[in-house]
Amino acid sequence: MKIAWVTDSTAFVPDKRDHDIFVVPMSIIFGDIEYKDGIDLSPEELFAKLRDEHVEVKTSQPSIGTFKELFEQLAVDYDYIFSIHVSSHFSGTYSSAHQAADLLKETVPNIICIDSKILSNPLTELIQYGQRLLSEGEGPLQIKESIEARIPTCETYVMVGSLEQLHKSGRMGGLSFFLGSVLKIKPMLSIENGKLDVKDKVRSIKKGLSSMSHRLDCALIDSDIRKVSVLHGLNREEAMEWVNELQAKYPEIEFGAYPLGAVIGVHAGENTIGISWFAEND
Question: Which end of the chain is more exposed for a tag (fewer CB within 10 A), N or C?
Fold first, then answer.
């Protein structure tokens, strides 16, 4: 049984040698110029452009045709295709993949599309979880059910680096933006059922990190958590300091720092920092 794993460039895929994972790039549009995320534009280049070029910046999901072409190519060598993507509330990428699979249902029936309801490294972890189940002998339908059961166990909390960019992207309402920009209150956001929700409001990064750490403390009361991801923009040094603090406090948990990527950076800003984990079911 060979399974191809298709995802998008909001996922963090560190091992480019994994030939069973295929990343479809999203687009970043600066004025009239379009870049492919992770191919034509790195996060460092993105944030430099955001600072220097005062033009409208947008992001765009891959087309239905892009997915259709990739699925047809993969069907030659793979028995099943799992297409797992960023939350459908953040992007139309899952919709594009699902529509492409629907167009191919007669000729390529073994395509399974999943809305992860998350993003970044947690999305990658879902794929790695599916790969582990495959190596343990699970069949495609069991893998699908297990991945979908794992999704609701994910908790993610984020402090965005730029409220202005989040507001411009339509992911934050006017009131929350006003509170943040005028009163200097930083909202701590959570991702719940694929949507952003304001969970706390603090006046400093330090208090925000403390608030997110407290969420982890609360989760550990009732849940077995084996790995925690610290998500960041360009502020890797700050993220690593927090990782070291958390690792010292919880030596039994695996901690790591993972970049958010350019597309997410368009909406969240370069100094974004967050935390995410899955509660284990077994």
Answer: C
Report yes or no: 123 and 231 within 8 Å, Cβ to Cβ: no
Q: How confident is the model at residue 244 (pLDDT cuts 50, 70, 90)?
A: very high
Q: What is the DSSP letter of 219?
A: H
The DSSP 8-state label assigned to residue 11 in this structure reads B
If you average pLDDT over residues 44-68, what whole number do you get? 86
Question: What does the DSSP assignment read for 17-46?
Answer: T-TTEEEEPPEEEETTEEEEBTTTB-HHHH
Q: How far is it, in rounded angstroms, from Cα 227 to Cα 256?
A: 8
Q: State how far the Cα of 199 lies from the Cα of 88, in Å rounded to an integer.
A: 21
**Neighbouring-strand partners of residue 254:** 227
Q: Using CA atoms, how far apart are residues 184 and 234, in angstroms rounded to an integer?
A: 22
Residue 237 three-state SS? helix
What's the pLDDT score for residue 139?
Answer: 96
Judge whether 87 and 115 are in contact, CB under 8 Å. yes
pTM of the prediction? 0.89
Kindly list the distances between the CA atom of residue 133 and the CA atoms of 79, 145, 281, in Å, as whole numbers in the listed order.
16, 11, 13
Query: Which tokens sit at 125?
Result: 């972890």
| Cα separation values, 69 from 24, 30, 76, 247, Å | 11, 26, 12, 44
Structure tokens at 214: 């407290």
CA 194/CA 204 separation, integer angstroms: 26
**Pairwise pLDDT comparison (159 vs 229), residue with the higher score:** 229
pLDDT of 80 > 70? The answer is yes
Contact, 125 vs 229, CB < 8 A? yes
- What would the two tokens of residue 279 be? 């509660």
Tokens of 71: 């699925």
- pLDDT tens digits, residue range 86-120? 999 999 999 999 999 999 999 999 999 999 999 99
Residue pair 164/199 in contact by the 8 Å Cβ criterion: no
Q: Across all residues in the chain, what is the average pLDDT?
A: 88
